[in-house]
Amino acid sequence: MKILMIGLGSIGQRHLRNIKAQFGDQAEILAYRVRGLQQTFSDTMQIRENCLLEEEFGIHRFSDIDQALAEGPEVAYITNITSQHIPCAMKAVQAGCHVFLEKPVSDSLSGVSELLNAAECAGKTVFVGFQNRYHPCIRRMKEFVASGRLGKIITVQAEVGERLTTMHSYEDYRGTYMARRDQGGGVLMNQQIHELDYLQWIFGIPAKVISFNGKNSSLPIDVDDYCDSIYWVEGTAHSFPIYVHADFFQSPPSRFCKVIGESGWALADLIHAVFKTSIGDEVRQEAFPDFQRNHMFIDEMNDFFTSVQTGKQDMLSLEDGIVSLKMACAAKKSSAEGRIVFMDEVCL
Q: What residues does 208 pair with on adjacent strands?
């Protein structure tokens, strides 16, 4: 099986390590690389000394994407900068590849409908990499909400915060795609969009949003470094708000989702892998001590290759990725125009 890697930064290398661990020499690795850096990362995002990337994984490198695709890879992993996701994914689909597309789908809706149509016409899987759906606490939250034990939902609170300046300790944060507008950076598109994905998975697509996001710090970056949004979910039985906060400053990092209902509350702590509930006078805590972050990436990889083999996709379709992208674009529009934006205003 030939697999083309498009982008081999930290997330691309994580996927590559998991692929080689799963398939070994059955996976022939091709790579389209622009910078061709040879630094190799560990699972903890530390640079491994005296280890050259292309030599370590036996990578056949190409500096031209068309030449790489001409080798006939069955699968392409798109893990480069966000602003280049759509053109690279389009080329891969048109060349006959199934595609693993790292989140988000893009930094705008431009070209998204064309990719969707191309994938449907070609009969190819496009799987979007939102690994937090595989977090045990998020899975427990989805089950618990569906059980109805919380009663009528009153409100939902979700937060993600992490310090941009130390997120990638091996490089200058100012040059990362997260810190650059021209590469699709910003806290909304690179951090909060994870929350938007699992929130719409659990609660459904919201009807409208009001958002306040922008740059509120002295960091020398040209992207948003905070985002506060309120999404309004209109259900058949009742409606409720979802408050989502993201920032580039918190240390230690924070990532949680709390659902408050008439009968109690439930809290998913993604950092510490703990799920807490309070129903009436009964407070419970469920810990996942064996959880490792890489488990989520392995699980999503397995689902992706199952989809490729069976032609059936139950998780993280391109359509799912488009929903979270539309939610993010609606939040951008709301903040820019200073008003509530309805989701149906954001069209492909």
A: 232, 342
Q: What tokens were used for 218?
A: 């002295």
CA distance 303 to 310: 10
Token pair 């488990």: residue: 295
Please give the Cα distance from 50 to 105 (Å, whole number).
34
Q: Which two tokens stand for residue 177?
A: 């795609």
Rg (CA), the chain: 20
Q: What is the pLDDT of residues 93-149, one digit of tens each?
A: 999 999 999 999 999 999 999 999 999 999 999 999 999 999 999 999 999 999 999
Which burial class, exposed, middle or buried, applies to 276 when counting CB atoms under 10 A from its CB (0-12, 13-18, 19+)?
Answer: middle
Please report, for residues 106, 115, 220, 278, the alpha-carbon distance to residue 102 in angstroms, rounded to integers and kept in the order given: 9, 15, 26, 35
* Residue 185 backbone dihedrals phi, psi, to 5 degrees: -80, -170
Residue 326, SS3? Answer: helix
Complete edge-to-edge strand list for the sheet that includes strand 28-32: 60-62, 28-32, 2-6, 75-78, 98-102, 126-129
pTM of the predicted structure, to 2 decimals = 0.92
9/79 Cα distance (integer angstroms): 8
- Asked if 5 and 11 count as a contact pair (C-beta separation under 8 A), the reply is no
Contact yes or no for 164/330 (Cβ under 8 A): no
Provide the pairing of β-strand 28-32 with 2-6.
parallel
Which of 46, 328, 317, 318 is CA-nearest to residue 185?
Answer: 328
Which of 204, 140, 130, 180 lies closest to 160, judged by CA?
Answer: 130
Neighbours of 228 (CB within 10 A): 17
